[in-house]
Structures are given as C-alpha cells and as structure tokens.
Design brief:
This protein is α/β, with parallel strands linked by helices and 372 residues long. 30% of the residues lie in helices and 12% in strands. α8 packs parallel to α9. The longest helix has 22 residues.
C-alpha cells in the first residue's frame, strides 16, 4: 500500500510502542494538538503546540521573516474532530495562519498588475478602521487576533518571496500525488526551504476514520484511497528535504523534524459488522525523520494482531505517549519543555509538558533514543 514510503525507510524511525489516552476524535485531536488532557475549565486558555513554538521563537524572528511561525494546512474547521487549537493564553501573534488547499485557492499571492490597487485599498482600510490603532493587552481577544492576523498576512503578501512559496509546478503536483494533502506537503517543503520564519507546520490528511468498508470495494476506497494519497506526498517530502540544501549547504532534512501520526489506533482482530475498525488507544504508531533522527530503525513491537505492546523498545521502558512526542519536538527546537507560564486567565500554571496525564502522573521525557 505504501511502495514509495518503502523507498525512504532508510530515513524513517518507526515507533510501534506508542499509546493514546483518548478514543474520541475531538478529545484525541485536542490532546494531539496541545499535549494536554481536555479540561473544560481551561479549554480556551490552553495553547497548542504550534502556538507555544511560535511564542518561543518570537525573540529570534528576523526583519526579513515574512511567514508566520505557526501555519496549519487542511485542518477541517467544523467536524467531529474538534476545532483547530490556537494561541490560548499566549499573545495573538502566536495564532495559526490557516490554509485550505482543497480548491487550490491561495489569495495571498498578488498579481503584479494588481499591486498598486491592493496598496491603495490597504491604506484606505487603515485610515477608516482607526480602532485597530488603539488596541492594547486589555482589548477583546478577537479584535487582537484580527489585527495580528492582518499585520502578518500583509507582510506576507507584500513580500516578493511569497509567490515562490505558494506557487508550484504541475510536475511537483504530479510527484506529490495531485491531492490537497500533496499540495500542502509541497507548500510545507517550500516554506522550509524559504527559511522565512515558519517554525511549526501542521499538515492534516483527513479520511482515516474507517468505521466501515476499511478495505474498500474492488480495491478502491478505504485504506487503498488514504494510503494512495499519503504515499507519494510523504515520500516526496522526505526525498526533497533530503535533496534540497540550506544556506550552509546541508540537506534541509538535517534541520527539519518530520513527525507523522494520528490521535489513536484502530481496533485489532476481526472487522466489525460494517467491515471497519473502531477507535483504539492501547496501540498506535508514530513515524519520525530528520533533525538527527537515525533512520532505518523500528522501536518497540506488538503482538501479531497489534492488540497489545510486547516490547517498548526505548529507554523509557513504557509506551511512548503524546507528551513524549511533544517533549521531543520542543527539545529538538531548543525549547525547555519543563517550562511553565504562570500568568494565565485561570490563575493555574500552564506547563509545556504536564506530568499529570490522562489517568496518572508520568515522568514524561523526550525520546532521545531516536537520535542515538
């Protein structure tokens, strides 16, 4: 099902001993995006992983950076999977720029013939909307978000480099599968290559919730469809990041951590009466590449039906949880994942990686074995 991914296994580390806390999409997605369990009292103040990384990278932003630090592509905004998590209690500059590649509509590229008209309209907007000039920390969050988004997008749209990031050839589209997921992977590659301020890129591929007809009909649909979309896009992304060079002449993959995973696994054994599989927390997997990850390795093992973990395969001697993945991502970026923010609306500290997990306290840690 994944012949092209098989060709890049030498660059991938596969963790077979991962485990989830949740089996409901909205709660699982929240956990995956924030690294924290859902708390109804704090759900609006809890920042996502991307927002925390944006927050931590603000001091390192250069005047030449024109891309927002946190960018999300193809996350469906109004489904059972729950909302895209934003900046929470962090500044509005940490909110995500959202791109939807389903119709390849990228309004951020201005045709040179329209630039003068765009500039006139921008000046007119600012002269009329004077409220945006008086915002402070006490202004409503929605207004601050809107102003932050406007400034970030304006800087992006007026930079001549944006067209190179958001436009790509038919040849690239074909290599990546000519799908919304493939298009998003191309843009992610371009953003990494541009080195223009993007620090956390979330690319979503929907369609894996196979409660029925998981193996399709007559070799079509189900896993055949989702794998066929994933295979060329993911493999091409790894191949291109390895082929393309950064300013210091090193492969882009050397300085880019790629993580591929979902929010939980699927039930093992016999298929359901609908010929599908339900949600399952006891076993799941994650794939890592780049940023010093030693490829061509498998960590952990399950029984033959993937019903339970039989070997953990790493120094933690327990399952790999979402918190461990978050700690690993923070660590690779040079962020102290034990840090906490104290000035939250609720008055409760926000800890980047909280040892109080879904059901018990665990000594979470980065999965350093991936790099050894």
């Amino acid at each position: 099902l994944l012949p092209k991914v098989a060709g890049v296994l030498g660059d991938l580390a596969v963790v077979r001993s991962a485990q989830a806390w949740e089996t409901v999409h909205s709660r699982g997605q929240y956990y995956l995006q924030t690294g924290h369990a859902v708390s109804a009292a704090r759900i609006k103040e809890m920042p996502s992983l991307g927002a925390v990384i944006a927050y931590e990278s603000m001091q390192q932003r250069r005047s030449s950076d024109f891309l927002p630090p946190f960018i999300s592509m193809n996350y469906e905004p109004s489904t059972m999977y729950g909302p895209l998590q934003g900046e929470g209690c962090l500044p509005s500059d940490c909110s995500p720029l959202v791109l939807d590649l389903k119709d390849r509509n990228l309004p951020f590229v201005i045709d040179p013939a329209d630039r003068e008209r765009f500039n006139r309209r921008w000046d007119l907007l600012n002269s009329m909307d004077t409220s945006r000039q008086t915002l402070d920390d006490h202004s409503p969050q929605g207004m601050r978000q809107f102003e932050s988004f406007g400034r970030a997008v304006h800087k992006m749209m007026t930079n001549p480099g944006i067209s190179k990031v958001l436009e790509f050839s038919d040849e690239d589209r074909k290599a990546y599968g000519a799908t919304p997921f493939g298009d998003a992977c191309i843009i992610a590659r371009n953003m990494v290559a541009a080195d223009a301020g993007a620090r956390f890129l979330l690319v979503t591929q929907p369609g894996w919730d196979h409660h029925g007809t998981i193996y399709g009909k007559d070799g079509k649909g189900g896993l055949y469809k989702t794998c066929a979309d994933l295979d060329p896009a993911f493999a091409s992304l790894i191949t291109d990041l390895k082929r393309m060079k950064s300013a210091d002449g090193k492969p882009l993959l050397d300085s880019t951590l790629v993580v591929c995973m979902g929010e939980f696994g699927r039930t093992p054994g016999e298929l359901t009466p609908l010929a599908g599989r339900e949600h399952y927390a006891d076993t799941m997997f994650a794939v890592f590449a780049g940023a010093g990850v030693k490829g061509g390795r498998v960590y952990g093992a399950t029984d033959e039906q993937a019903a339970k973990i039989t070997e953990f395969g790493w120094s933690g001697k327990r399952p790999v949880y979402t918190e461990d993945v978050c700690a690993t991502i923070y660590s690779v970026l040079g962020i102290d994942w034990s840090k906490r923010i104290t000035n939250t609306p609720s008055g409760r500290d926000f800890q980047y990686v909280d040892p109080a997990a879904g059901t018990r306290v665990i000594n979470f840690r980065e999965v350093a074995d991936l790099f050894a």
